[in-house]
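Typical record was shown:
=====
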Amino acid sequence: MANSRIFNHSTVILKRLHTLLIRSFLPPFFITLFTSVFLFFLVQIVITYLDDMIGKGLRSIDLIKLFTYAWIAIIPQCIPLAVLLASIMCFGQLSEHYELAAMKSSGLSLFKIMRPLIVLIFILAGLTFLFNNYILPYVQLKSTTLLFDIRQKKPAVNIKEGVFYNGIENFSIRVGKKSANKDSLKDIFIYNHSARMGNTTQLYAHSGRITITSDTSEMILLLRNGNRYEETSDMYNRQSGKTLTLLNFKNLQVNIPLEDFKLKRTNEELLKGNEEMMNIWQLDSVADSTKRVIQRRVDGLKNQSATYFYSRTSALIAHPVAYPVVKLDTFCKSLSSEQYAAVLQNALSTARIAIGNIDSSEHGIVNEQNSLLLFEIEWHKKLVVSFACLVLFFIGAPLGAIIRKGGLGLPVVTSVVFFLAYYILTELFLNLAIEGKMVPWKALWSPPLLFLPLSAFLTYKAANDSVMFDFTLYTDWLKKLYKRKTLA
């Protein structure tokens, strides 16, 4: 009974310790994830595409959708950084307050202490893969399509005072003065070129008011106290001259279509073939199809070369009796000048056709190989992030236990340095893969595999209570070395 009570008591304590670890890990993880996503969002979306969004009169709902999609798409890139910093802060804080030392003194090993977080990181890595494989392709499709539509959209109508505005097709508008709220106008000139016969229709108004319909399909001008001039001519009888029509008005409504200024939505089916919009099974299927296309192109080029490009040479080798070998000089001398010119022109035409077909086939093969390369890169990218979370956790957790510092000081600096090194290596190897200088699986898996020995080394040092970051140890060693040299 006593042993069972001790066992139950130790189990309760161990569960509380595990709960303490998880509670210490999750807050810095979510804070770091939110902060890093926000910073990446500013750099990759807002700063990069700011010029494409300003002045286009975008609706708030469109901007909210774009920012939401972009925000979600950035999350997988920032999960490894959040894992690294949270693990350093968690174990650094436990070491700084001697809580980790107390756990070890009670007989718990480092791996037993880390066990709940290891399970949590494995779950997080699995969720990251599911996110990359199922949610991210959909988000990328929506984000890319909406961003493309925004970039293609014309700037919003911006009529300035005293300058003719020609941004609307078939219309030229000049406003003498605008009110503070920019909806009341004075001294309005409108030239209507929709008849495509010059300035045949002109409007002048003393004042007016401008509004845009709710669906932004039309601009409505309510003109007051003005004149309308229109010249018309008989298309079938040009000698009849032109007729001038004058209309004096006190109130006149002019509707100007703005269809070109609306946000036109692209068909999403056109972008579904992009590698970022597929899961790993779709990527596998498309990659296999692309390999078959490449093989068919290569086989077709070989067959064409054998049956057409070198047909005469092949026939000569296969049937030496039917095609006796004749020296080129003897053959050319036996021809007349007209025959020689015709033979030469025929040979040049055959060579040009052969070169053109080879270049066309080679260009098609290269394009298919580049597509296959992108499919393979994307396939590995969906898996590498999950593995990177595991590797960086086994760097951050022992590193926090070794440096024995919590908070936002040294842990933040250390995690940023390691993550920058990992990020730079990832981009470097990714560029090598895109340029075709390195096999995709080697390029994508090299950065986490390079960090794997470091994680094993730091974990070993932390499990053995290493003081490798205690700088007094190194200064004392240097002092002893200096004293030995002075005595010698």
Remarks:
- The chain has two domains: 1-153+266-308+356-411+458-488, 171-261.
